[in-house]
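4.2 Preliminary Data

To establish feasibility before requesting continued support, the project team ran the inverse folding procedure on a target of 570 residues. The structure was first converted into the token representation described in Section 3, and no sequence information of any kind was made available to the design step. The complete token record follows.
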């Protein structure tokens, strides 16, 4: 009798084991994985196993293939999350004597809670998993649970809890001796979390040592061969990400750092590498994480294009993000606010201030992320300053991002930007001493963390103030380094502004040759920006600036030509 009860469990576990082996192969062998799961139904399994298999099949098909209809069919037969959660809870209760399955089920239930945005429950489960892994002697899987929890704590903005967790994980990672690939992948996970933590805090300079270690780790992993020897502890039978995915992830965090620091050519170089790698991977693997990586890379490179004066290319890449979001409702839900923010930045670059306001307002409505909210408010404030007639709305926004009092986030970079915005407003209002105080604060903060774009913007604005006050020598001391830094980034708008000031400064100082050279530079920058402006506004994708509601438009209708003012460029 006992033998008859156990028999289905044995064949089920064997098929499931094969399916998991094929799913985690590098590259994943999804067709064979699906065949193994489908074979479960041939044995007419009990209802709970049938439901779980439908859930697993639906998940594999959804994440790794384009057969969304079949995936949906399997998920419906499993009754989706509502029935999966009690099923998983029951399985967790009865699996404590089988470490691998107990850990795997805890990961699965935590993932379901994460998909439902219940991060508190997910964190609790990952904490339970970490303690269980410690008890069964699996420091490797304990670290995986803790690092996964750290990722969710970052999403929840519980930064005070992240630091001690990272300290603990660092000790575990360094002390654990096991499969070399598993050890290096743990180190990559740990360092990615550390880099993300620093970048979220706007600490661009502080992140450099971690980023260097991360790049060394990924080079080490690329030289290691997959070890088929199974770990002695069954709880260690987990892999975080395939090597190829880790490589793209390291490129991605390098791009994020380069963008924040103002090394835009470096950001471009690593984006190109990452996108090329992604294209190769997506031919074999339809995992949704690859589309997420692609969208985040595009979001960053779009911001680079807008700074370097390539608005037409940026607009086409925004349209590409729209297309990717059309293919995945979940991707759109997670990135809609960022997409409208990018459109708002594009609108500023082509002087469509009403559209910029509408895009930023839409983005604010869609985000619950505090750093993104602060970034959007900062840019919306710059729109109101440029318009010059939105005083009530402007002061209301500035109260909410006051860098001197109760600033809403811990980001060093965003707080420095808030000082710059106040300096810009004071400049337009003719309150030059006040403007200088705010801008010197920005300079102090941006120099401390190598925030090159903010440094360049602050220097050129200070140079403008000194020029207006008639202090030409001090103005020159600001504008010359601003121009050098803007050329290094390169930041086209700051170069345009700096060259105009240098032209007037040298004329005032009687430096005729230098004034002529600066005038020629200004003319060249103006022509480049004007041509790019016309090219961008002539694209059919330019109509995206009017989209403020619902999913991304499926088709962009062409328009006759540019309809925006070019005054801001001339």
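Position-by-position output of the design step:
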């Amino acid at each position: 009798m006992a033998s008859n009860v156990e028999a289905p469990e044995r064949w089920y576990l064997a098929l499931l084991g094969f399916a998991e082996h094929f799913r985690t192969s590098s590259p994943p062998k999804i067709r064979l994985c699906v065949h193994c799961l489908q074979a479960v139904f041939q044995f007419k399994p009990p209802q709970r196993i049938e439901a779980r298999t439908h859930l697993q099949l639906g998940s594999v098909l959804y994440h790794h293939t384009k057969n969304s209809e079949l995936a949906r069919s399997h998920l419906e037969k499993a009754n989706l999350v509502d029935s999966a959660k009690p099923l998983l809870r029951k399985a967790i209760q009865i699996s404590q004597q089988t470490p691998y399955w107990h850990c795997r089920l805890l990961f699965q239930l935590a993932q379901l809670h994460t998909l439902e945005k219940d991060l508190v429950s997910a964190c609790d489960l990952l904490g339970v998993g970490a303690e269980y892994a410690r008890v069964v002697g699996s420091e490797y899987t304990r670290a995986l649970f803790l690092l996964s929890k750290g990722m969710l704590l970052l999403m929840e903005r519980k930064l005070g809890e992240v630091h001690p967790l990272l300290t603990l994980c660092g000790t575990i990672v360094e002390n654990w001796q096991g499969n070399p690939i598993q050890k290096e992948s743990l180190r990559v996970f740990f360092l990615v979390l550390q880099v993300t933590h620093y970048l979220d805090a706007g600490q661009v300079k502080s992140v450099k040592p971690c980023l260097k270690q991360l790049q060394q780790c990924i080079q080490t992993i690329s030289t290691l061969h997959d070890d088929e020897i199974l770990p002695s502890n069954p709880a260690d039978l987990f892999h975080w990400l395939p090597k190829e995915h880790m490589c793209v992830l390291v490129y991605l965090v390098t791009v994020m750092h380069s963008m924040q620091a103002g090394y835009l050519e470096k950001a471009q170089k690593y984006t190109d590498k990452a996108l090329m790698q992604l294209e190769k991977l997506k031919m074999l693997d339809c995992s949704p994480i690859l589309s997420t990586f692609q969208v985040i890379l595009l979001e960053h490179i779009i911001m680079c294009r807008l700074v370097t004066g390539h608005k037409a290319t940026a607009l086409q890449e925004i349209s590409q993000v729209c297309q990717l979001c059309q293919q995945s409702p979940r991707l759109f839900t997670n990135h809609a606010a960022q997409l409208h923010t990018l459109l708002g930045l594009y609108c500023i670059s082509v002087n469509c201030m009403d559209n910029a306001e509408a895009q930023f307002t839409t983005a604010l409505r869609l985000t619950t992320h505090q750093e993104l909210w602060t970034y959007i408010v900062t840019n919306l404030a710059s729109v109101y300053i440029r318009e010059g007639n939105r005083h009530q709305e402007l002061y209301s926004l500035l109260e909410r991002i006051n860098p001197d009092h109760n600033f809403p986030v811990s980001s060093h970079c965003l707080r420095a930007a808030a000082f710059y915005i106040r300096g810009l407003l004071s400049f337009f209002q003719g309150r030059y001493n006040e403007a200088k105080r705010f801008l010197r604060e920005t300079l102090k903060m941006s120099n401390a963390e190598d925030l090159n774009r903010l440094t360049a913007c602050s220097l050129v604005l200070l140079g403008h103030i000194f020029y207006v006050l008639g202090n030409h020598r001090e103005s020159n001391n600001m504008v010359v380094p601003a121009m050098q830094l803007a050329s290094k980034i390169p930041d086209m708008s700051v170069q345009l502004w700096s060259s105009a000031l240098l032209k007037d400064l040298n004329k005032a100082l009687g430096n005729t040759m230098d004034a002529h050279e600066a005038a020629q530079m200004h003319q060249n920058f103006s022509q480049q920006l004007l041509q790019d402006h016309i090219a961008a506004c002539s694209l059919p994708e330019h109509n995206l600036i009017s989209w403020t509601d619902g999913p991304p438009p499926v088709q962009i209708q062409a328009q006759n030509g540019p309809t925006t003012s070019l005054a801001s460029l001339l």
